[in-house]
Amino acid sequence: MYKRVRLRDTVEVPPRFLDDVSEQLVKELLQDKLEGRMDEEVGSVVSVVEVVDIGEGTVLPNRPGVYYEAEFYAVTFDPQMQEVIDGEVVEVVNFGAFVGIGPVDGLLHVSQISDEYLAFDEEGQQLASRESNQALGVGDAVRARIVTKSIDERNPRDSKIGLTAKQPGLGKHGWLREKHEQAAAGE
Description:
The protein is mostly beta strands. The chain has helices at 23-34, 173-185; strands spanning 2-13, 38-39, 43-59, 66-77, 84-93, 96-101, 104-109, 118-121, 126-129, 135-137, 141-150, 160-164, 171-172. The chain is built from two helices and 13 strands. It has a five-stranded mixed beta barrel. A hairpin with a 6-residue loop joins strand 3 and strand 4 (66-77). The model has no long low-confidence stretch (mean pLDDT 89).
């Protein structure tokens, strides 16, 4: 999901900064340009962490800045199909729960949370079972598996990731802990 990758890109240094083209300046310009953007090959760029090399500057006709090719390390986010993730419920709606998994949210549809019927409690902002009194609400830690993904390269926040928690070892952390404790007690 998260990776540290070595990348190359070109950055424009405005004329007012040309007297001191430093790694720190290039890093800040790369951060402004790339962080939060999606790249087909590496996923969403979360952070530019270190500039390794700055090439020679190139001047383009009728352009005020100087363009430098830089090599740098970045942390990227690229969720993989079937990957198991841990996240936190950030919103509950009548059709499911949105789970924060890095820079995007995944949807845990109500049908993919439990085999029990879960009713939406709008006042309590949770999905609750009448059979076992289990509930899933905002702030709950969840373990789920990625089953669908549609990445929006123009706006990564609009990407859609589908999750499931209907397998052994998946679900709300509190439910998993209870099952583990019951199994340890021999119930």
